[in-house]
Amino acid sequence: MLADRVILKHNDVMFVSDLAGDVPAGNDAGLGLYRSDSRFLSTFELRLNGRRPILLNHGVDRAYVATFQLSNPVLEPRHGGAAIPKQSLSLRRTRFVHDGVHERIGLQNCNRHAIEVDLELRFDADFLDIFEVRGYRPERPMGTPEAPMPTETGLTFGYRGRDDIRRTTEVVFHPVPQLTKGTACVSVRLAPQERYVLLVDMLPLMGDGQPEADFHFDAALEALERRYQQWNASCTRWRTDNESLDGGLIWRNLEDLRVLCDERPTGLYPTAGVPWYAVPFGRDALITSIQTLALNPDLAVGSLRYLARHQGQKVDPYREEEPGKILHEMRYGELANLGQVPHTPYYGTVDATPLFLVLLVELLNWTADVDLLSELTPNVIAALRWIDEYGDLDGDGLVEYKQHGRIGVRNQGWKDSWDSLIEEHGEPAPLPAALVEVQGYVHHARSGLARIFRRLGQVDKAEKLEAAAEQLRVRFESAYWMPEERYYAQALDRDKHQVASISSNAGHCLWSGIVDRQRASDVARRLLAPDMFSGWGVRTLSSRAVSFNPMSYHNGSIWPHDNSIVAAGLRRYGYREEAERIAHAVLEAGMRFSDHRVPELFCGFSRDRRFGAGPGEYLVSCSPQAWGAGSLFHFLHVLAGVEVDMFANRLRIDPLDTTLYSRLRVEGMRVGDGEVDFTVQCGEGVRVTVDRKPPGLQVELPAGSP
């Protein structure tokens, strides 16, 4: 269970421990120190006279730093003298992640007499690829880790992989204890109330990398904190008078977003989630960047540039690569380097390519950055060509997917579990399949690009895209509409038969604008019907479906990012109360979770208002997770009613009335080359006051606003 772990991350370094801060030897829960998909420490245990300390509490206020407060059990004397009574020693571990793991271990004697105790640390490094840690068995044997070697300052663990990359773990101590094999031990003698401090740096090195010279614990931590302060200063400040929302969810999820971002030459890139998915994912980064345009458009720029750099160039069935296709997942470990897994990168996703175009469209609405459009134009052309030539497998005007490689993902939309696309008789739908939401994304991309090209005077491009978008819309309505259900099918299967499940996927089509306005009311009504809306949010699948399970991954659970897109779609079609109801419900659920995080997903049980029960946690969801954290800011965006069109130099603020807060303050929202500050007052009508805006920006406000 992830609830039994403490996970810290910064850039490509991640440390996963138990609640006491240990990585127990032989653990099968994936604990350890990771960098670039390799485990550089598989054991890190702290012992007092050979015994495990007692955990009093632990804290992870920020996802790159943790504290562990421990005490001692009864300790038998090691060198004569009296036993040490239980809970008479204070043991505190303070840890942060920055190009490695850095820990300060403080031991204080709370006895009235002097004591002597052996403080022991045990280490080991198996250098397993992260796929091996998760249970994958390599096709051929991997390398063997070398025996640990003592150095002047600590221990070195080494490994040369079959990929010929040298991986080394340097363990550096101050002061240096007695070292034997993988163990460090110091006999500590303490007078009453005296303290002893041991500093330990655990540094994962690739190739010929060397540990940083003159590393200073406090200075490094302060420098890391300044980087996060800079992130906070670059983001829109959202403030409300709801303490649970303001002091809990907003702060925590803002921090989580930054922790999940890797600093790359192309800019900040939001990785998907920890512990197993802290690497580039195409779909996750694109959706997270769309969700956070009103928070920080830098994520969108970094995501687009990184994905453009790794856009598909050739046909490779093993990796599911095709020219113009946007990647699904990138891995860096030994198995990927050897080609035993296809993630170098792996392209098994049908929706990342149109979402790449959608993100660019939405970002340009906020920035009108024609230089970025010019930079990415070759990638735009390649992505549009992929949609037409490779995405449409049978030439019927719809984008389908099938699994090309022997290793990879069968279902290649955002609901990518094996059983997420089930036909009425209970069997998986035969592939290729054309998902309903993917057609919406393609329509969104074509119509949005057409609008931008027309405003830039590129009329021929605009007209071709407009015609293609309209043809798709007509085909979509005839192929997916289910007259008896008054709703859209989840997909079309191999034989173009409707997969007639009532799912949340159709809500994404509201967001994309492909849905006929006469049918939108039916879609909105069904999304909020009891079989779909649990009281905590919209389920992924109707409770009437044959494969419904509220505790499943995709067949009845509630995903906040899914709900934020649905709420944005309802808002787009004018269903204001319905959009507010979904946003309110999911944010209330988030406020009920103890870690103040909007989770990746949670169970789809109906809300029990009689007994006041909270939402059911999904036990193995990522925490933190990027589009879970991003959904909070997407909901705030929807509630604030912000619409930007910088090609027309126009900003519209039309908030939804909500009881989540009576006052919303927004500061530093980046629009074009400037910033906007405004306040929303709810209750007995909505009023908006704008305090600051770029010169010349036209602002539309609700009636009655000053």
Description:
The chain is of the alpha+beta class and 706 residues long. The chain folds into 5 domains: 224 residues, Distorted Sandwich (Beta-galactosidase, Chain A, domain 5), CATH 2.70.98.40; 128 residues, no CATH class; 113 residues, no CATH class; 118 residues, no CATH class; 48 residues, no CATH class. It is 30% helix and 24% strand. It has 15 helices and 30 strands. A hairpin with a 2-residue loop joins strand 1 and strand 2. The longest helix is centred in the middle third of the chain and has 22 residues. The radius of gyration is 27 Å and the shape is globular. The mean pLDDT is 94.
The overall pLDDT average reads: 94
- The secondary-structure class comes to alpha+beta
Round the Cα radius of gyration to an integer and report it. Answer: 27 Å
Helix content: 25-40%
Provide a count of the helices: 15
Largest beta-sheet characterization: 8 strands, antiparallel
Q: What is the CATH architecture descriptor of the largest domain?
A: Distorted Sandwich
Strand element count: 30
Q: CATH topology of the largest domain, what is it called?
A: Beta-galactosidase, Chain A, domain 5
Q: CA-to-CA gap between the ends?
A: 52 Å
**Oligomeric state of the chains in view:** single chain
Relative strand content:
15-25%
